[in-house]
Structures are given as C-alpha cells and as structure tokens.
Amino acid sequence: MDDLRKEFEPDDASGTTPVGNDAAVLADGADGSGIGCHGGVELSKAAARAAGQGELMDRFEADYPKGPHDQPQSMCPAFGSLRVGLRMRRVATILSGSACCVYGLTFTSHFYGAKRSVGYVPFSSETLVTGKLYEDIVEAVHQMADPAKFDAVVVTNLCVPTASGIPLKMLPREIDGVRIVGIDVPGFGVPTHAEAKDVLSGAMLAYARQEIGDGPVQRPRGGLKDRPTVTLLGEMFPVDPVVIGGMLEPMGLAAGPTVPVREWRELYSALDCAVVAAIHPFYTASIREFHAAGRPIVGSAPVGVDATDAWLKAIGDSCGIAEEKTNISRNAMRAAIKAALAEHRINGRITLSGYEGSELLVARLLVELGADLRYVGTACPKTPYNSQDAEWLSAHGVELRFRASLEQDLAAFQEFKPDLAIGTTPVVQKAKESATPALYFTNLISARPLMGPAGVASLPAVINAAIGNKDRFLAMNAFFEDVGKGDSAGIWENVPEDRSAYRKKFAAKVKQSRNAVDNGESVGC
C-alpha cells in the first residue's frame, strides 16, 4: 500500500491538474471466483444477491431498466463514473477490481486526456474470500485522505468485488475532513457508461444534500448568482451552457452548474436552483436527489425551433416567470434559429445511433435542418424526461429504438440504405465497408454545440462534407475490389486455404466453455 499514495498529486490553486504517473499501481492475482464481466450476467447477479447486495441490485434494476436487450452498446460502464471523478478538482479515485479491468479503464482514461493517475487496490482469491480486500480498501482510503490535497476520495467497486459483496457502504463517511464516497459500478448492473456517470453524480448529490442539512457549506468559487438558476443535468459541449445562459437572461434567470460537476462545492450550487433541466434524461439517481431537495425537473432541451420554444416555456412555467418575460426569449430564439435554419441545410438520408444519451436531441436538430432521418438508435432507456422528444420524432416519421442493440442498428442501415450513417464504431465500420460515408457519433457529432442558433450552425458542414465523399468511397471500393476479404484479404503468392471448418469447430468449443461458466460449472476469470 505504500506505493498507492504516490499515485496522486493535488490540484494547484489555479485549478489545473498536473500529470501523474501514466498507469495505475497493478498487481497480479486471479480472483478465482468465476464471476465478473467474463462470466455469465445472471450468475454474477445471483452471486451479488447471495453476498448481501440484493438492495443494490434492486436499485440498479429500477434506476436503469435494460428493456428488450440485456447489454446495449457501450464501453465498460465504470469508464463513465471514472471520467466524472477524474475531471473534478481535488478528488482522488481508487478502483477495486480485476487487474485487467483496471488496466483497461486507466488506459482509456489517459487516452481521453485525463491527466491524473488512478489508485488501485489489488486482490487475490484469498483476500477476496476472507474479507481482507475490504481491510485493504480501508487502509488505502486512510492513506489517501489528506485534506491538504483532496476534498473527496471516490472508491469504486468493479464487477468482482460487487458480486462478492465488498461493503463500501461501511467505509467511514469522512476522514480528517475528506469525504469518502463508495460506489458500485458492475457491468452486470449498470447497462452503459453514460448511466454510470449518474451513479457517481447521484452519490455525490446525496452526500452534499446531507451536508447542506447539517449546516453552512462552501460558497461557489465564482460567488452566488443574483438571479434564480437552472441546473443543467448531463454532459454538454462547453459552449452550450453559455448559449443557454443567454436564452435565460431575458427571463431573469441564469444558467447554474452543469452536473456532473467539476468541483465538489458546485454540488451545493446545483442543489440550490429554481429548476433542473434534464438535458440528459437518464440521470435517474441524480433526479431522485433533486426531487428530494424539492426541485422541479424539465425534460428535453433547447435544440431547434420546436424544442427550444417548448423548453423555454416549460422553464418559465416551472419558475413562475411572467408570460411576457418568457415570450421575449421565446420570440428572440424563434427568429434567430429560423434564420440560422434558412442558411444551413442538410440534404441526404441518414441513420443515427449512439450511446452518449444525446441521440434524440441530435435527431431533432437533423430533422429541422432538412435531413431525411429514418432511424435513431440509443443505448439509453426511455424515461419521462425524453418522452416529448420521442413523440416529436415519431410524429416526423423517424423509427426510434431505446436500448438499441448493434443488430438493430445494422439492420436499420441495411434497410434504409442511407447516404450517411452516424453511429458507433462497428456501425461506422460496416457502413464504410459498404462504400457508405459514416461518422462516429461520440467524437464527431456529440462533441459539438447543439443548443440554440449555435447548434443549427455546427452540424451541416461536417455532415454535408461527409455525404459529399460518396464518390471517394466508391473509388476506393473499386480499387480494392479484387484484394479479397476475410481469410483471403491482402496480397498472397498462393491462394489462401479455406479454414471455415476449423473456425466452426473452435466456435463450438467457445460456446461450450461459455455455457459452463453460465451454469456455474467453471470458475476463473
């Protein structure tokens, strides 16, 4: 444990995050449990319940219903909660899980620009079974709880510790003034990484709400707003909160913090709001805390003409703003967005899929921009706060799938034969193999302004440019047409042998092995 403390460096006074070590502290050791993301989902759920985690599993099933598909497209869900913690000032993160999982999570986090190291508490079969792992976590938390460096330490159980019943709820609430937040983010309980952001945000809001009830708390770094605020729930492009603030100003309102927050004290400001805008509608745990604080929730978002107009009216009604003041902003936005739509158009048939949670908002914007949008697939669930978006899209002839599977997304691509496929990596790959232009939703679409007139202007250029590349894809397809694919891909001196029989035999062995794990006949990770 001595090396664990060295993994962290404090944020300096300016709020920047210095570079830590490039990788987490890793240790070998098989868990020997037969549970986790490599085992059967139902086996892991049963193990968690048997280990005393029944209440946790019930909460996950209520908060994040999976729908017709057990596992929609997403990276490891813990990546979402990990990213939330890594972006916060003066917050340390410790993971407890299989070494391979921790390595993958930290590697991906650094790849996405988190210039901070992650602590890791390793375990073995012995420490897992005897409860020594929990003792090691307690020791690690005490080592990390330095109030000169941190406001909070987040401890996250991954699949195996959750299924084994490691009780993070028994950790001290605080140590020397440093808050201790323990969460479970198992792949068999939280469907997507987008929803895992809510797991940590909800836990932090619950902690902050209790602190507010106990007495005075820290003021916001920038001071208190002189107007009622609207808390924005869900990650957004940095320009969007500024745009929303401009919309709210004529109404006598201001944009409040965005949850997930970047600093602990922002949690207090987020809770001290007039209304919460559920820009991402699946933050169920966070919404529960806002409801407990007596805050109303408004769904959808100010994208395009129709949604912006309805959203501003809903915000005004929730805050008790006089209709004439709300109408000033509504009329201004209608005129500005319609003018932007007249200058920016999209021509082409599109299918859209993603796992970030903003898919329905992007879809509404595409339709108003003139795109022939046929299909939207989202890994996230249907909730009361995206029902308006779903109804609007259905009324405009768009096929919509919540908790969409890769198979559904690919089937939509095959059926509608779009000029452009916007989607996840495998969807983009399939489209490009078929000589169809494609864009990765996460990096190229959702990472752009979406709100107000800025959103109208941000999408057409990249989408029209991609659609215009059709001839290049056809030319490349023709050039590589005789190169081959599968076993015959590439350039060969001799004709490759057909290995299909071997592949079928190997696939049968893999299937038999997986069934053994699902039935509890095999152990190991």
Q: What does this protein structure show overall?
A:
- The radius of gyration is 25 Å and the shape is flat.
- Strands 2-1-3-5-4 form a five-stranded mixed β-sheet, sandwiched between helices. A five-stranded parallel β-sheet has the order 12-11-10-13-14, with helices on both faces. A four-stranded parallel β-sheet has the order 7-6-8-9.
- It has helices spanning 41-50, 54-63, 78-86, 99-111, 125-130, 132-144, 159-163, 193-214, 239-248, 266-271, 284-292, 304-319, 323-343, 359-368, 387-395, 406-416, 425-433, 441-444, 452-458, 460-467, 470-479, 500-518, and strands at 91-96, 119-120, 152-157, 174-175, 178-184, 229-233, 254-259, 275-277, 297-298, 349-354, 372-378, 399-402, 420-423, 438-440.
- It is 45% helix and 12% strand.
- The two termini are 24 Å apart.
- By secondary structure, it is α/β, with parallel strands linked by helices.
How are the SSEs placed, and which strands pair?
Layout lengths: L40 H10 L3 H10 L14 H9 L4 E6 L2 H13 L7 E2 L4 H6 L1 H13 L7 E6 L1 H5 L10 E2 L2 E7 L8 H22 L14 E5 L5 H10 L5 E6 L6 H6 L3 E3 L6 H9 L4 E2 L5 H16 L3 H21 L5 E6 L4 H10 L3 E7 L8 H9 L3 E4 L3 H11 L3 E4 L1 H9 L4 E3 H4 L7 H7 L1 H8 L2 H10 L20 H19 L7
Parallel strand pairs: 1-2, 1-3, 3-5, 6-7, 6-8, 8-9, 10-11, 10-13, 11-12, 13-14
Antiparallel strand pairs: 4-5
Helix pairs in contact: 1-2, 3-8, 8-11, 12-13, 13-19, 14-15, 16-17
Unreliable stretches (pLDDT < 50, length at least 5) are 1-33, 516-525
Oligomer: single chain
What's the alpha carbon Rg, rounded to whole Å? Answer: 25 Å
Structural class: alpha/beta
Ends apart, CA distance between termini: 24 Å
Global geometry:
flat
Sheet of most strands: 5 strands, mixed
What is the arithmetic mean of pLDDT?
A: 85
Q: What topology, given as strand order, has the largest sheet?
A: 2-1-3-5-4
Percent helix, as a range, is 40-55%
**How much strand content do the residues show?**
5-15%
Number of helices: 22
> How many strand segments?
14
